[in-house]
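Morning. Coffee machine broken again, so started the prediction first thing and wrote up yesterday's gels while waiting. Chain of 87 residues, entered below exactly as on the submission form.
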Amino acid sequence: MADLQWREKVKKITNVAESGQHVPEQAKSFGMGCFYIFFVLIILLFLFLLIGFIQKGHYIAASIVGLLCLGGIIIIRRIINADQLPK
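Came back before lunch.
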């Protein structure tokens, strides 16, 4: 009996998560804020690695990390400037 109740709860949660209609706007903005903060921290980590590689003379590794950092910046700018994310 408890197993059937558990399944129904999981089905309801799955339907809400797929449709996204019942998720409060405050929760959505909080989630996106956390995503932006995480992404900015990763970009800062790459910048510190880039500076370290340049100081040590590892220019190939610095160029790879620089490209990753530049790609991350481009991705985050496109997400911020997007009118609406595709479904």
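The CA atoms of residues 25 and 31 lie 10 Å apart. Going to sketch it on the whiteboard this afternoon.
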